[in-house]
Amino acid sequence: MKAYKIYIINENIYIDLFSGEHIVQGVARFNSKHSMNGCCGGGCGICRIKILSGDYTTKKMSRKQVTDEEEKEGYALGCRVFPESDMSIEYVGLKNS
Ligand code: FES
Question: Which of 39, 58, 64, 66 could disulfide-link to 44, CB 3.0 to 4.6 Å?
């Protein structure tokens, strides 16, 4: 099984992910109390990230949390992002409302 390194640039930490896992799964293994841990269902928005580099696929995300426009700019929900290479991301968290 392939493993990828995910660099969270604004926290200066690397997490390991196996293929088929989403980013929040790797974060939870690294630190179960990390604030990115949320519903893991693509709805709450606590795992909002900005993707800086790397290959990945996504599953359906709440458009309230990540609009089409934001997705084009690299924003995504970590629990809906499945890496296919090493990646660099920024942890953003909940939108200000
Ligand atoms: S953990 Fe709730 S949207 Fe990702």
Answer: 39
- Model confidence over 17-69: pLDDT tens digits? 999 999 999 999 999 999 999 999 999 999 999 999 999 999 999 999 999 99
| Distance between Cα 92 and ligand 1 center (Å) | 12
Q: What is the DSSP code string of 13-61?
A: EEEEEETT--HHHHHHHH-TT-TT-S-SSS-S-TTEEEEEE--EEE---
Element containing residue 91 per DSSP (H, E): strand 87-91
How many other CB atoms are there within 10 angstroms of residue 73's CB atom?
Answer: 11
Q: Which domains does the chain have, with CATH numbers?
A: 3-91 (3.10.20.30)
Using alpha carbons, list the distances in angstroms from residue 24 to 9, 73, 84: 15, 20, 15
| Contact assessment for residue 23 and residue 47, using Cβ atoms and an 8 Å cutoff | yes
